[in-house]
Amino acid sequence: MLKLQYSDFTLECGTDEAGRGCLAGPVTAAAVILPEHFENVLLNDSKMLSEKKRNILKPIIEQNAVTFGFAHIHPTKIDSINILNASILAMHQSIESLKIKPEFIIVDGNKFKPFENIPYETIVKGDSKFLSIAAASILAKTYRDVYMETIHEEFPMYNWKQNKGYPTKEHREAIRKYGPTKYHRKSFRLLPEQLKMEL
What we know:
Distance between the termini: 45 Å
Largest sheet: 5 strands, mixed
Number of strands: 5
CATH topology of the domain at 12-146: Nucleotidyltransferase, domain 5
Oligomer: single chain
Helix content: 25-40%
Shape: globular
């Protein structure tokens, strides 16, 4: 069972992102404040759960959360500020969209920038330690997946509904054959043989 709280603050928000390593589509973050005494034995890091379980948990999280929010940062922005800054920006925007301002923020990973002077803590593998970060990881992943399934309709040859923009062999083959789309991150090495540009 994951822990409910890291700090002594009542309104503690967990935040996490999904899609950082993808070649196409947004990086998506979510932020969640869970109520006191919240329990769920299924809830875990989204990467440990099947798509079916994530989709079962999504409405449970949304119905039980004190407040939740999510945000997409799209490829043009990712290319202009880099993926780390885009991930942090997505987290900031998801926290900003919460209906209630958190008193403390716990962040999955080891990189974050201060948000509105709210105290925070970065926690490596936080999504497998704290319920609110696990909940945020599930919302970020499911909202991003829905987005990728939507843009799949526009460019079905990349099979984003299956690979969700991750660098699978099939995805790379499609890039080789059809070239990149407006949804591809131009600053990423889309093909292994691409030469790294000197920036």
